[in-house]
């Protein structure tokens, strides 16, 4: 990563996760990204994983909680962002090869950063989780960028439809080897078998060891989520359509996607871990509606007095996401006497939580939530300072 002191309003960097607002750009996109990253920090960093309010947890399997909206929102934003970053290159024509090479480098770097987080601090390559959130973002970024640069919007829509239908047929009609019928149970679907076969159980999600929520096969419909952002951005960039008409059609599209997702849920349930086709449509509809609302407020009506906290998160999203995963692991290496007396010592992160938050709250869920909110506010202060100093971390 590199640091720059360019004004946030003038940056031209093309990484979807680290664009700053500038004249002629979507301020709403930066705000949406900031809101999403802020929510991600909140749900990923509870004070106590054993005491969490239900909306801040993922659905156990089928279903969708507010927390299950965060990652698809992020991928949708990646799709929107890459169109704004690469549309000028596409409009100029010419061979897409050099641009795709730059895209591939950034995707590889995102994948590498995610792999580094999985390795840190033990660097045990024998059991490292190969896939993960940043890894999936990198793969979706590359696939959607390649499709955007080399195909038309119509082709992208057909590709999206093909992905969703094909993925549904695969998971519900093709049984994993060794099973008589296709199953949509944890560890028993075709995607789980593929992950165990190609990656082995040692390199999967440590909680299950038999399947991975960011697995190889489910990355395919995750590309579909990114494509929803790609086609939405191309509609927003049309200069021949009045802003109010854009917003109306975006809300109509959002409603249709949500309804289609709920209908599809009847036979292919909404499920984040499998990233089902119904989940793509349902969460995609929520994302389109959210962006439409923010676009109307921030870009059309110019109501921007409230956006600064989300903007500072949005322009340095890659920084806060990476460091919020790195710093807790580092703090856990610093050992102190356990204030609960349950062990001889504990990591500094846990010690701070037990010392500063647990004594203040009778309900452990409130203490856990307070710990997460405190971290969100700490990062807000850091990112606000970075924004005021015009410091943007780029990949």
Structural summary, described in words:
This protein has 395 residues and is mostly helical. The chain has one domain (2-331, 362-394). It has helices spanning 27-44, 70-92, 97-119, 133-150, 153-173, 190-199, 219-236, 243-264, 277-300, 308-315, 317-331, 348-356, 364-388; strands at 2-4, 335-337, 345-347, 392-394. Strands 1-4 form a two-stranded antiparallel sheet. Residues 25-239 form the Heparan-alpha-glucosaminide N-acetyltransferase catalytic domain. It comes from Hymenobacter edaphi. Pfam families: HGSNAT_cat.
* Structure class: mainly alpha
Poorly predicted segments: 1-23
Question: What series of H and E elements makes up the topology?
Answer: EHHHHHHHHHHHEEHHE
**Anisotropy-based shape:** globular
Transmembrane segments: 69-86, 129-150, 157-176, 215-236, 248-267, 279-298, 310-327, 367-387
Organism: Hymenobacter edaphi
Domain Heparan-alpha-glucosaminide N-acetyltransferase catalytic: 25-239
Keywords: Membrane, Transmembrane, Transmembrane helix
